[in-house]
């Protein structure tokens, strides 16, 4: 079985460097959020920041010590909150 191609991306929220597959990187590149192989949602820090300590769970998964966790969907975030219909302004003739 071929090993997946993984990128190491440092997370801004926990400071660990996580392993992210190239498919997950392509899927989250516009939002800056990537699903790591450990299941953590990585909020990418600046790409000029040097890699930190590798996440222990990602390390164990890359070694083959543990099975991969079940995927959890990334919550969607809207840029603007939805305004309820009753609060919208209606154009008057």
Protein described:
By secondary structure, the chain is an alpha+beta fold. It has a domain at 6-69. Helices cover 16% and strands 17% of the residues. It has two helices and four strands. The strands form two sheets. It has a two-stranded antiparallel ribbon. Strands 3-4 form a two-stranded antiparallel sheet. Strand 3 and strand 4 (41-43) form a beta hairpin. The protein is globular.
Structural class based on helices, strands and sheet pairing: alpha+beta
Main pleated sheet: 2 strands, antiparallel
Order of helices and strands: EEHEEH
Percent of residues in helices comes to 10-25%
Task: Give a brief outline of the structure.
The protein has 93 residues and is of the alpha+beta class. The chain has two helices and four strands.
């Amino acid at each position: 079985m071929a090993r997946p191609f993984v990128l190491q991306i440092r997370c801004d929220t926990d400071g660990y460097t996580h392993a992210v597959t190239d498919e997950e990187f392509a899927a989250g590149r516009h939002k800056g959020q990537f699903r790591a192989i450990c299941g953590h949602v990585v909020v990418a820090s600046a790409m000029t920041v040097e890699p930190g300590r590798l996440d222990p769970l990602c390390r164990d998964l890359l070694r083959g010590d543990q099975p991969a966790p079940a995927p959890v969907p990334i919550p969607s975030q809207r840029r603007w909150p939805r305004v309820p219909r009753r609060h919208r302004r209606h154009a008057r003739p």
